[in-house]
Design brief:
The protein is an alpha+beta fold. Helices cover 31% and strands 17% of the residues. Strand 1, helix 4 (78-94) and strand 2 (97-101) form a beta-alpha-beta unit. The two termini are 37 Å apart. Residues 218-319 form the Fe2OG dioxygenase domain.
């Protein structure tokens, strides 16, 4: 089957009554993809089948490691800070992704956070069912595929999500198996996010508090998602996470040793190989918008895998279950006669609503171009 035929088949399936019934039956189990694996499936349901990908995977000879930036001494040594700012600027303009070492979050916290994700998804099924919901306004949300009814193909992944900042959740609203580490991780991420936004402001040749002083609340908002990718018996037919850009200002990702994250760079999929102790940072659509396209929000995906389970933790900075209704657009100091606005003003509420309605895999930033 050629790519166009496969895509056509998927589009038809979206509106199929049988498909809707299948989706509802899957959702009603409240056990997600892990439930399928626990049942011993050897053939994945067609709901998870993805059409062929048109972009090739870069060979080892072609593949280039995304920038790794060391933050050691960035708060104390002005020369080191200038060098770091320069490297961040280059990474944001070229790759849209970079990895960070010496970020200030203890290795023990990173490991405990990954363990907390595993504990949640591998606990007793009945305990998970109690917190299963599709109401994003809940303090803690667990389900499989947030865009279950709008996506053309499901991803081989289960997820929990919670808002960690500006106000941390009440401890009693979080599952006991990961409660303490979620709160500790959120506190650490708040500090790290503040540093990142300062360095990003400086990399735009603006004062360090510029993005924070825009009063959009973006430096205070952190939405955290714990992802669990069970081993897949037919990984070539599906995706862990389909290709997409993030509807945030900035995303900070903690991934385990298994790998599978790829970014689209120069029309080839490049592996973002796990490096112990690092955090992966990527530009979101909203940061691309306010920098008038100077910083790149690039497509990325996660491959399904045979070995699993893979776990990761994504913190979306500038993302909230209650997005702001304050309008914003390209930063005026970055505009000129030769560099007029490329994007219209919007609000994070409008942007996130459009993103959620479209589902993963549908480019969103283009909709806001002038």
């Amino acid at each position: 089957m050629v790519e166009g035929e496969a895509e056509g088949r998927v589009v038809k399936m979206i509106n199929s009554d049988d498909r809707i019934a299948e989706l509802k039956a899957f959702d009603d189990t409240k056990t997600g993809v892990k439930g399928l694996v626990d049942e011993g499936v050897t053939k994945i349901p067609t709901l998870f089948h993805h059409p062929p990908e048109k972009f090739p995977i870069a060979s080892d000879a072609e593949s280039t490691m995304i920038p790794v930036i060391d933050l050691e001494g960035v708060a104390k040594d002005p020369i080191t800070r200038q060098q770091v700012v320069s490297r961040i600027r280059e990474a944001c303009e070229t790759w849209g992704f970079f990895q960070v070492v010496n970020h200030g979050i203890p290795l023990s916290v990173l490991e405990d956070m990954k363990d907390g994700v595993r504990r949640f998804f591998e606990q007793d099924v009945e305990a998970k069912k109690e917190v299963h919901t599709r109401d994003d306004m809940k303090a803690f949300v667990y389900n499989s595929n947030f865009d279950l009814y709008s996506s053309s193909a499901l991803n081989w992944r289960d997820t929990f999500a919670c808002q960690l900042a500006p106000e941390p959740p009440k401890p009693e609203d979080l599952p006991e198996v990961c409660r303490d580490i979620l709160l500790e991780y959120g506190a650490n991420m708040m500090k790290f996010g503040t540093i990142l936004f300062e360095l990003l402001s400086e990399s735009l040749n603006l004062h360090s508090n510029y993005i924070r002083d825009m009063k959009l609340g973006i430096t205070e908002q952190i939405r955290c998602a714990g992802h669990y990718y069970p081993a897949c018996p037919e990984p070539e037919l599906t995706m862990g996470t389909t290709k997409h850009c993030d509807a945030s200002f900035l995303t900070v990702l903690l991934q385990d040793h298994i790998g599978g994250l790829q970014i689209l760079y120069e029309d080839k999929w490049i592996d973002v190989r796990p490096v112990p102790g690092t955090l992966v940072v990527n530009i979101g659509d909203l940061l691309q918008l306010i920098t008038n396209g100077r910083f790149k929000s690039v497509q990325h995906r996660v491959l399904a895998n045979l070995i699993g389970p893979r776990v990761s933790v994504a913190c979306f900075l500038g993302s909230s279950v209650k997005p702001s209704s304050k309008p914003f657009g390209p930063i005026k100091e970055l505009l000129s006669e030769d560099n007029p606005p490329k994007y219209k003003e919007t609000t994070s509420a409008e942007y996130v609503a459009y993103f959620c309605a479209k589902g993963l895999g549908i480019p969103v930033i283009e909709h806001f171009k002038i």
